[in-house]
Structure prediction request, 344 residues.
Amino acid sequence: MGYKFIDLFAGIGGFRIGFEKNECKCVFSAEIDEHAGEMYQANYNEKVHKDITKIDEKEIPNHDILLAGFPCQPFSIAGEKKGFNDTRGTLFFDIERILKKKKPKSIVLENVKHFKSHDNGNTLKIVLNALHKLEYTTSWKVLNAKDFGVPQNRERTIIIGSLNGVKFDFNKLDRKQPIFIKDILEEEKSEFEYLDKQEYTLIANPKKQLSGLIFVGYRNKNIRTKGTKPDTIHLSRVHKQPNRIYSSDGTHPTLSSGESAGRYFIYHNGKVRKLTLKECYRLMGFSDNFKLLGSKAKLYNRIGNSIVIPMVEEIAKQVKIQILQSENKIKKPTKQMTLFDFYS
Prediction:
């Protein structure tokens, strides 16, 4: 394989698979969660380092691409203490110190959709400014997994930087025709967890939303009154995601890292059933031969924390074309970044 990459906050390797499919080679990986690390080692047959904060950047192999899906929560505290001009006290600081030492040609960072507005936009500003100081030209965009060949409405903020002055163009990513939940379902089998008809209510005339979701009903759980708005008590059954039912003719909502019971219900062929664990992994683009280890609760947590592989695969393809293989070296910007630079 040609270009080398490191996989930080690696989870179960969604980033890794997408770049390996583009003939890139992983030379270092780090993931602090013990269960995720066990799955990573089982599937890629190599040691995964644990706490990135305790790893000396000099010991990390040289690489062309740094990949990281990093947490953003600590930035608020850091901002209060340091006036939003420092990354110390956050896990992004560890990305920053590795970049300073290793100077990879490209970086790809991933976070939740609302990362762009986290702490009133200050978090994004901190990250982009830090990368600018390290001479990386950056661009960012919120991408949706449903545009890349999986039937899941999952939006994520992607930041891409280059050291050669090339500004990554997200418009060149190849979007695919939508597919639907029914396209990734397992064949009929006795192990499916069906709901009895008295356990759910279907609504009349369900409509497809712009996201591709088709909400068709809800589980008949006890009605909640606490915290509900006036005249909306009847909606209390569907306020929580595990009570909602979606048609297999549409897309699926975002799989959540907090849903350890896997309560994702679909209406398919006139019946309501729970998605299987295998189907949940298919919604993220994992193949059926991907090794699943540990309890179901942990496996649902892992998949909810992962990244959609087909989306990463297309990003990797364009990173190679636009940045790594680029002959057109644009002069590196030297001016101080403006607000327009942050949000363009």
Observations:
- The chain has nine helices and eleven strands.
- The chain has a mean pLDDT of 88.
- The first strand starts at residue 4 and ends at 8.
- The first helix runs from residue 14 to 20.
